[in-house]
């Protein structure tokens, strides 16, 4: 996805519906869904995450922070992985699907935030707009733009929790050998399990 790529509400609905269909197909038949029309429509590379929530609690979240796959394939793989391979949770069961809300976040290309001193991160990062990737020579961690909004974090807390997601000290963002990148996300989600689908833009959060 380039910075200028726009998604219509209809395209967002197609992405979320496909994420649900892909998980349903995999849990029912242990196979990956194949839809040539969908593949053709979303035949471009993009980072993407699929998030599963059950009764307002996280049930799984996996994706690709950079554009290593075409969106059509990345979405399906991320959806299946979020349901079955997130090591924080037991695999989702078929009976659970009518209790789970599907959410898709399509990512822009991550860009390193250049600062002369760590304190400048606090004014460079915008809650509700930016997702973060924290990296050093040993580990990396990512949090999506919607996460600090959901938990009511400020920028410093967002940095700290992203460091912890990477398995680093919470103040590792202040180290000179830590690289911090940001990205934006276009978010589409079900309003209820298998319900209508809405777009959550940065303006929704601010």
Give the arrangement of secondary structure elements.
Blueprint lengths: L8 H21 L6 H6 L5 E8 L2 E8 L6 H14 L15 E8 L3 E2 L8 H4 L6 E5 L4 E4 L2 H5 L4 H11 L13 E5 L1 E6 L6 E4 L1 H4 L1
Antiparallel strand pairs: 1-2, 1-3, 3-8, 4-7, 5-6, 5-7, 8-9
How would you describe this structure to a colleague?
The chain has 206 residues and is of the alpha+beta class. The protein folds into two domains: 9-108 and 185-205, Hypothetical protein ph0010, domain 1 (Glycoprotein, Type 4 Pilin); 111-183, 2-Layer Sandwich (Dna Ligase, domain 1). The chain contains seven helices and nine strands, in the order H-H-E-E-H-E-E-H-E-E-H-H-E-E-E-H. The chain has helices at residues 9-29, 36-41, 71-84, 121-124, 146-150, 155-165, 202-205, and strands spanning 47-54, 57-64, 100-107, 111-112, 131-135, 140-143, 179-183, 185-190, 197-200. The strands form two sheets. The chain has a five-stranded antiparallel β-sheet. A four-stranded antiparallel β-sheet has the order 4-7-5-6. A hairpin with a 2-residue loop joins strand 1 and strand 2 (57-64).
Task: Quickly describe the structure.
The chain has 206 residues and is an alpha+beta fold. Helix content is 32%, strand content 24%.
Mean pLDDT: 93
Total beta strand runs: 9
Side by side, the strands of the main sheet go 2-1-3-8-9
CATH architecture of the largest domain: 2-Layer Sandwich
